[in-house]
Specification:
Blueprint (H helix, E strand, L loop, with lengths): L13 H6 L10 E7 L5 E4 L8 E7 L12 H46 L6 H18 L2
Helix pairs in contact: 2-3
InterPro entries: bZIP
GO molecular function: DNA-binding transcription factor activity
Protein name: BZIP domain-containing protein
Length: 144
């Protein structure tokens, strides 16, 4: 009876997770036998392994759902410091991006004003004046 970790287990797929140390919800405390066959195959059983087969017994204790492992305080502090540093850097990057947008908008406004001074077709008048108003509005709201 060779079965993988996910197939044929009475306690379900959660047993494999419980095998590596995460609590599993079970009906009652039960013993699970891990049998390593001569060819290296591993079987999980509810009954003891046959004679001549290497075995290991684990007791699955009844728990009430998942219990998160306690965090180490030092690791939590390190994560908090990293967040603070990244937030400070993010604010600086956002400020630089806004300065670049303002600079580009000022350049666009300058090109539109140059075009208005140099002359333009009558059909372009409304569009050029609209762009001029939009750029001036943006600069007054976000840059000055």
């Amino acid at each position: 009876m060779r079965q993988g970790c996910f197939a044929g287990l009475v306690l379900g797929v959660g047993l494999c997770v419980g095998w590596i140390g995460v609590p599993v919800t079970a009906a009652a405390d039960e013993s699970i036998y891990r049998c390593t066959m001569a060819d290296g195959a591993v079987e999980f059983r509810q009954r003891p392994c046959q004679q001549g087969v290497q075995s290991e017994t684990r007791v699955v204790e009844q728990t009430r759902g998942f219990e998160a492992p306690a965090q180490r305080p030092a690791a939590a502090k390190k994560r908090k410091l990293r967040r603070k540093k990244s937030n400070a850097g993010a604010a600086e990057r956002a400020r630089k991006r806004q300065q670049e947008r303002c600079f580009r908008t000022e350049q666009k406004l300058q090109r539109v004003e140059n075009r208005l001074r140099a002359g333009y077709k009558a059909s372009h008048s409304a569009r050029l004046h609209q762009r001029q108003d939009e750029y001036e509005d943006y600069l007054s709201r976000f840059c000055h």
